[in-house]
């Protein structure tokens, strides 16, 4: 099998026409691209006819898989009725109203109003603007800084990318912007001190946050934003008690907690929300991705009544609430959000996730024993395998060796699509996956890991 077979005409057209996100675009003419033609269930099929288990739900988002007929019919029905309208200037549509009401019903904390965006990045960007707007309304013009965390991922717009705590999202982009602070990443495996228990590590994380707040001044900090489980930063799952400890520090200093539920919302962790699984008590919530099972773009910001009343007060002062997006509350997207939530409820998708969780856990534990894997971590139906050069010392590979991307490619050649986050292999299958399909996905993952282990040994990449 050729390492890089000749490009097809469609691949050539693709490379000449598109800018590919999160891709080494300087290599595309030699590596080529994979072009998908169709999908059904948990499988996608490229234009060459090859089938893959989509083990990442696309980008953590296609929870209902591909080609769901109820979702398709809902889209067709809405397109025929009202293919587009906005919610500017006191206009609205039935799908936007119905989806907002459904979100309020299933929210993990009391929610009064929903503001729609087109994506998770826009939702998190809006969270910052709304926090600033609220504090201006409350006569606190200096309370504007936002705390995020190292290795967090909150999107790619200018502010959301600033909140993101990954060097690749800052280097070359003149980011982060002012008013953004980053505290420690709550990953005990990678950042715990030798001999430090998880409880001691959690206490240190809380102290570090407190020190940051007191150093900056609590009167200058509006909010902290956090993913219940950190996604693109490596599927980092905080130790038990972490959010309770963090919440106590935030409450003491009158700093609200924003939950970024873009990945963890709608059943992924075995509850409607990751906040419920991880014992978070957020003030406001961002949602997207599985909100429509990715059948159309949509994001949402969910706020309680007291926060909304601050917006009302400032609107009265300024004359209007001057924020919004052309496609926020798009009737097609909202109709698909309504249908997705109905399907989650009627098919008991959360119950299905919980049924599969022991299988997922068992297979992840087996993955953790692989010679190439330092830690395998998981929560619900999302997990990651961190690849290391030495298991006992946790020593990482030199990033220039590209062990993670190579492993991901080998897994792909075995018919499964997973995602390399550096040298971390993430797994996030559609929530509709069957037990047999889940086991097949892990079988293909294990085969790819074995091949990667052989490649690492051949290339002598374990040398210190």
Automatic annotation (TrEMBL):
<dbReference type="GO" id="GO:0030170">
    <property type="term" value="F:pyridoxal phosphate binding"/>
</dbReference>
<dbReference type="GO" id="GO:0009448">
    <property type="term" value="P:gamma-aminobutyric acid metabolic process"/>
</dbReference>
<dbReference type="InterPro" id="IPR015421">
    <property type="entry name" value="PyrdxlP-dep_Trfase_major"/>
</dbReference>
<dbReference type="GO" id="GO:0004015">
    <property type="term" value="F:adenosylmethionine-8-amino-7-oxononanoate transaminase activity"/>
</dbReference>
<dbReference type="InterPro" id="IPR005814">
    <property type="entry name" value="Aminotrans_3"/>
</dbReference>
<dbReference type="InterPro" id="IPR015422">
    <property type="entry name" value="PyrdxlP-dep_Trfase_small"/>
</dbReference>
<keyword id="KW-0808">Transferase</keyword>
<dbReference type="GO" id="GO:0009102">
    <property type="term" value="P:biotin biosynthetic process"/>
</dbReference>
<keyword id="KW-0032">Aminotransferase</keyword>
<keyword id="KW-0663">Pyridoxal phosphate</keyword>
<dbReference type="InterPro" id="IPR015424">
    <property type="entry name" value="PyrdxlP-dep_Trfase"/>
</dbReference>
<protein>
    <submittedName>
        <fullName>Aminotransferase class-III</fullName>
    </submittedName>
</protein>
<comment type="similarity">
    <text>Belongs to the class-III pyridoxal-phosphate-dependent aminotransferase family.</text>
</comment>
<dbReference type="Pfam" id="PF00202">
    <property type="entry name" value="Aminotran_3"/>
</dbReference>
